[in-house]
Amino acid sequence: MAQCKLTPHEFIQNAFSPMVSVMCSPSVDQTCQKNNLSFIEMIQPFCKINTEAHFRDPSGNTVTIRNLRITMLDVNSRPPQPTLARKFLNESVSLASSDRTSALQIGNSAVDIPASVPWFEAWRETFLQVQFPSDHEFTKHYLSCILVVSSVESSPADVLIQMNQQLQQLQNVTPAKLPKWFSPNVLRYYVLLHDAQEGGLEKAECAFENIKNTYGAANCYFLQMNSRPPGQVDDQTHLPDPWSQFLIRHLDGQEGSDHDSSPRTPAEVGGLTGLPMPSRLATEGSCDSDISPKETELAQEAGEGTPSGAITVTRHPLSPSADSEVPGSFGPTSERTSHMTDTVGLPPGHINSNVWAGQGTCIGGSQAAHGACLTAADLDRLRTLVQDFCIKALLPHVERQVQQLSDAVSNKKGVSRSLLSATKRWFGSNKPGMPNVNTPTNAMIYASDASELQLRRLGDLCFMFGHYALAFQAYHSAKRDFSADQAWLYYAGALEMAALSAFMQGEPTRKAQEYMEESIVTYLNSCKMPQFATRATLLSTECLKGRGLYGEAAQQFIRMTSEDSDLRSALLLEQAAYCFLKAARPCMARKYAFHAVLAGHRFSKAGQRRHALRCYRQAYQVYENKSWSLAEDHIHFTIGRQAANLKLMAESVKAFARLLSPLSRQTAAQQAAFLREYVSIQQQQVSEEPLTDGSIPELPLPIVEQNSVRVLVGPLPCSTSVTPVVGSNSPTVPASGVTFEDDDPDTAKWPKLEEMLITAAQKQLPMIFKPTIQMFSNYTDNSRNPVSIVGEPVSVQVKLVNPLQVSLPLHDLQLLWSMRPTALISADGSAAAPVTPSTQGTVEAQVLPSLLLPADSCQPVVLSLTPRSSGELHILGITYSLSVPATDASGPGASVCGRQLFHVHSRARPQKGRKEPLPDKRLQVQVVPTAPCLQVNFVGQSSDMLCGEVQQVVMEFRNIGSAPLSTLHVASSAPELFVFEGEQVGSAVNGIVHIPLTKLAGKQLGVGQVHKTTFWVRAPDVPMEATLDLLFYYENVVNSAVPRYRLVRHQWILNASAGLQLTASALPSCNSHQAVTRSSTRLLNLPLQAKNLNQVQDSIMTEVSLVQILLASTEWQLSQQAVLPKGVQLQAQEKMYFLLQASRLEDKALVAGKENISHLWLTENSELQPVLIKSPYLDFFDRYVHRKGCGDAASEPSVEQGCGEGTNEPGLVDLCLLVQWQASVVIGQGARRSAVGQTCILVRHAGVPASWPPAIPQTGSMQALSPSWPLSSFGVETTPALPASGNTGERFPALEALQKLVIFTISHPPRVMHDFKSSRLCVVPVQLLLQNCSQQQLLVKINTLSNSNMQPANKSQLYSPHSSAAFRWVGLAKAWLELPGHASATVALAAALGSPGTFDMGAHLEVWCCEPGAPAANAVSQSWRVESALIVSSMS
Amino acid sequence: MAGSYYFVIVGHSDNPIFEMEFAPTNKEAKKEDHRHLNQFIAHAALDLVDEHMWKTNSMYLKSVDKFNQWFVSAFVTASHMRFVMVHDMKNEEGIKNFFMEMYETYIKYSMNPFYKLNAPIKSPAFERKAQFYGKKYLIC
């Protein structure tokens, strides 16, 4: 995991390999060019010697060197200038990549990290290579120089002499310039190159002899090459090209071509990491502000000069303003201008016009040509050259040098402590990094041959050749000297090397670690040379990692991240992140993630998009699903941006889609920005890489509430065309039908009505009754496919949720569908390919042109499809185009077309024994070719009515389907509210009415035919909102058709407001005159009170005038004797009293059970008269009476007797008063309408006042009385007793009723003259007339001897003076007689009066009655009281 | 001048269950840009919180981490809920008091039988309390 190829030891050894310069004559280069290589390049692969080498140290011990590697460079080569160096660095990173990852399990989450980090290693190597050699250390100084001449020259020896002189000049230049030399007397080595193709071997050997003689055999080498004849280029192709890995980095030295043409240069990339306005989530480096920090970085990384102002400011790494605030802190201007000139002088490399174009082109182009003329023997010669050079020349030279240096050091030991340094030590600060010290930080410059530097030289030499013990000693002493002299740069270098020596020795100590730490700090703070600090860090972290100290390594990496170099910071942060993962403590995944994000951020600023994307991806694995939403948003946004830049559109789209999550906590403006970004990226993706199957992408917004998807088959009520009836201004209302709003999952009323209808229409109930479902929702049984008919729309309602805080404009919404026509199904089962929208016009989809989803809302959308042929229609989802909310100025924003699919799941529980839920087929519509379709319109329907008002409504049936229909039925849950024209009374008891189609041909309604029928609706008696549910049923005339029958629903909401209240009672009356003359006539007085219940504060004002009073009874009829005020209008809350009289019909006119209706007109307006007596008013009346009877019967057994037999109950009158009225209703502003209605009242018992509607309607009773209460006609609901019905609840008749069985009156002469003188007693004959009011035979007892005290005396007090009761009945005092039902009898009595005066003849008279055969004790005294006065005058 | 503070309660699976930012009123402008950063810092500091909490007996862990100019203080409750505060000024006493008060508030809140441990806290009352204590102890 994230391993480096090299071990720390190898890495450090390679980093400090001895430097050897090479000087070639021009002809040598020509020779080498035949192989498409320069001499340096040619020899490069062989610079490592594999055999062991030895040298002796000053104390005489032999030091063994393994794997010695030397670095050969052209003597004229210079480290690249900052611009170029930077490019090399960038390139090294961008070219290296590794796709292999290894997974690491941390807790519950797995993290994928790269298995190796080649980009870091490449950068590190490049970084070390591009460093300029510094004066404070000698590891980068040339130890030796190899001079190469070609045998082609006429005199190679002369050329060598020239070159020696050149070299001498180079060394003696003052002030010292590049190249730098390790010591004044560098080792010189002479190579004679012989091109075998050129021939002349003898001459060349001769020349070589000459050279050997001049410079010594050990220092010369004869190199023969190009042995292969040209054109013979076959046998080597299979061998690995030894040069390839060394040539990669030798790239372009030419500037200028790439900055403008290539879109991927770092400076241009800077602006891409930022978020769009207004809040910049990622840091924003606008292009212009990028320049200054980049320049700074160039100068620093290349190690040339020290920018004065580039002090690292502590700044947030993700901070947006960091870039722009660093002032122009680059090095001196002259240096910058010289960059361009310097680069021209570089050795020509392989020119690649676009360094960013990827490694493939540059390697592939040059690879084939390398070493074309070299045979294996030639390669061996090259290898021997290096080996000979090292062992025979270099190592002895080094041995001498070490000896010499150590001698010099030991000799000067005493002297070196100069007076100057001693004083400094006393007075100066001895610690680096004290900014207050006046000494300039790098003030101390030693001469190149200063004695202090000899120690350092010695250390470097020993270090390079692997004598680490000696090196450590040397560095250690050098460090002390430098510290004393306050030469901080030298000091830091010595510390660094000392620490490395200790590590290489294999005895790393705590001390060594501290040295390194101090070295880095000194480089950084005192010397302001971050490039050295970086190098020290790279070396140090390797040491620390090698020792397992990952936490410390991470700290060091992090310290070296600063604002001045994004690339370096990014790489180091990434390394730090890996260190956190490897930390010995429980690995710090969260730190890893954070630093990966930081690294990714810096990578993106440095233009390394691929790496930035990789880092963010790695980090996201840790942040995933932890709901750090803002952090996640940042990651998604960056991933989206980087992926888009790298043309990974799919990934980019996915990342941006995640940004639009419902959990987003961004501000509205930010969300709008995200949305814009998403839409544009999605657009790009669609245009650049369209999906292979031609379909459109799925969009993340708006969210479809999957289980809210509802399907409605059949026409929507609103879409049916309403044709007003000509010549009528009454509104035409179409049947309400089924809408998406009817989604009450608990309503069973419609299926119940349907069940009743089927039973009635088909005369039998199907085996399994499955109610027709027109609207399929989450609550319905979706195991059957919806059935639709060709030409009828299938509507789908779906709820779209917009979770964002910005509104979403959608355009062109339509349903996505696929259709499999019937023809294909029948042909080959089901394997036919479904027809998609593009192929045929089999389905017409409704397009919603635009819809604006407001912020944070949920909006239902209804879309429909109209199939044009039969088959199977699958509704797949919706398509739409999502646009960016238009900003004020920009007009309509970009939009992208996309789709969302429906995934519905049935909520119905699976049946027992079945695991998987039932399939939800609501989106798979079966389309059948033909069916009738009934459209029902109501003409004259209004919803506001008065209680008891009657309205006429015309029903218009129209067959708009494609087949004729028959057997039209209608069912209702409230049959008492309506009456059909021509309907048989009582036929609608169970709520089902058959509407005959007899007038039409074949008793069926053909296609396009219209049938009209009239019906009346009467509003309920109680003020309420009543619902009249009508379910129409009709059948296809073809019996086998699917569907067999269809339904139309209508729901009519009646708003009944207060109307007329009636209060009535029946009082038996006894007219004595009549009684005498027509003995068998009985009378009832009927006081009737009518009250307009309209309240003054009601919204409507009514003015009621009564038209007619009807009396319906089996026994009574209205007599024309009545007090009838005519033409009275009742305003709100006004009352009117009537006194009516009803007389009993003759016995012979009585027919059992037949009701007699008598009426009285209250108005002179006669035009209404013929209408009102007829249907429908009497039908409603019937229905009312019927319902009253049945309703009471259900709850009141005692009355059931009375109702059924009538005879058993005494005092029962059972008559029904009906008042028909006209009302003028004022609705609001002067608009008025007239209404006609009727109100009934049932008077059951004589003497008991009844009132209807109930005066104070209580909520409970009102609901119970509600006529529209569903299915009440089935007797399921109980209707409580009416308040006025004399409810005793016992089996026995009420006492009150028993006391009124018999009425009686007396007749006597009103005035009697009597001569008391002649006779002391005056005897007056009195006739007692008894009338049996019941149908029963009664045993009546007349008692004239009752105690007067028992008589209620209060009434007599009204008279003043009181009529006297001081008389006695004489003669017949007590009598028993039997009285048949409704019969009357007369009994002759006589009263004896002793004095003149006024006498109350009712006194002392009592009538008892009981059933015949009952014991006498059961007799009940009748409460009837006779008020009759007799005046007796004395004749004198 | 008062610094800005970001307070988060972190649940057992490193998920934030309550977040709140406290900023002095005068520097609202720059706040927006750093909102995600606070989350990053707080989340990264959890590694150190987990390490520190075994080293001490007290619930208040003081400053556990530092990132550039931001400090991270933490408090670990008995049920190992972690209170993390990212702040740019030293205010040890105030933060400690704030943590103690929030601990008490949190305990009361978690007593609610309808509250599921580790679920996000979405209670206006809780927010008001946090706001109040933030004003009292942090942005004095």
TrEMBL record, chain A:
Domain TPPC8 third Ig-like: from-to ranges: 1052-1241
Comp. bias regions, Basic and acidic residues: 253-262
Domain (TPPC8 C-terminal Ig-like): residue spans on this chain: 1301-1407
The protein's name: Trafficking protein particle complex subunit 8
Disordered: annotated span: 253-342
InterPro entries, per the entry: Ig_TPPC8_1st (IPR058541), Ig_TPPC8_2nd (IPR058538), Ig_TPPC8_3rd (IPR058540), Ig_TPPC8_C (IPR057651), TRAPP_III_complex_Trs85 (IPR024420)
Domain TPPC8 second Ig-like: from-to ranges: 947-1048
Cellular-component GO terms for this entry: TRAPPIII protein complex
Residue stretches making up the TPPC8 first Ig-like domain: 743-946
Domain of life, source organism: Eukaryota
Automatic annotation (TrEMBL), chain B:
Keyword Cytoplasm part of the UniProt annotation: yes
Similarity remark: Belongs to the TRAPP small subunits family. Sedlin subfamily.
One BP annotation, GO: endoplasmic reticulum to Golgi vesicle-mediated transport
Gene3D superfamilies per the UniProt record, alphabetical: 3.30.450.70
Entry GO CC: perinuclear region of cytoplasm
Organism of origin: Gryllus longicercus
InterPro entries assigned: Longin-like_dom_sf (IPR011012), Sedlin (IPR006722)
Keywords, alphabetical: Cytoplasm, ER-Golgi transport, Transport
UniProt keyword Transport, yes or no: yes
UniProt cross-references to SUPFAM superfamilies, sorted A to Z: SNARE-like
Protein name from the UniProt record: Trafficking protein particle complex subunit 2
Compartmental location: Cytoplasm, Perinuclear region
Main location: cytoplasm
UniProt superkingdom: Eukaryota
